[in-house]
TrEMBL record:
PANTHER family reported in the protein's UniProt record: RNA POLYMERASE ECF-TYPE SIGMA FACTO (PTHR43133), RNA POLYMERASE SIGMA FACTOR HI_1459-RELATED (PTHR43133:SF8)
Native source organism of the sequence: Niastella vici
GO MF annotations, alphabetized: DNA binding; sigma factor activity
Keyword Disulfide bond in annotation: no
Origin organism lineage: Bacteria, Pseudomonadati, Bacteroidota, Chitinophagia, Chitinophagales
Keyword field contains Transcription regulation: yes
Annotated Gene3D superfamilies: 1.10.1740.10
Domain RNA polymerase sigma-70 region span(s) in chain numbering: 23-91
Matching Pfam families: Sigma70_r2
Signal sequence segment: none
Keyword annotations of the record: DNA-binding, Sigma factor, Transcription, Transcription regulation
Entry protein name: RNA polymerase sigma-70 region 2 domain-containing protein
Listed GO biological process terms: DNA-templated transcription initiation
InterPro entries with a match to the protein in the record: RNA_pol_sigma-70-like, RNA_pol_sigma70_r2, RNA_pol_sigma_r2
Amino acid sequence: MDLTDEIYMKEVQNGRLEAMAVLFDRYQVRMYNYFFKLSFDASQSEDLTQQLFIRALHYRNSFRPEQGHVKTWLYRMAVNLHIDHMKRQAKYRMTVMPLDDVHGEVVEMTTSNFTEAVGFVTHHFGNNLD
């Protein structure tokens, strides 16, 4: 007979962290699919799934069985994790219009190519941008 998720979560809360492995096995595919439906990015979905279970361990004492099931708690945490992830991405992303684009196409620029853009601007305008 399989024990309920809530019993395993109680074990985790009592310090038997290896019980989280059972919950991981039960929910990792669901959580991965949830993140993948939001991002269509396999690597990001894997990372967020891993972060979710790390977060679940960290906040294990916030689970209250009288407030809902482990599944609901994990999905709520997944929603919050995805929101946090999107906020972090938005901080490092900006939209610019390239100076040499006569059609006005909008290009997404991230921190990974920011140095290249700075080089472009200083090459065409010099270091004095006042």
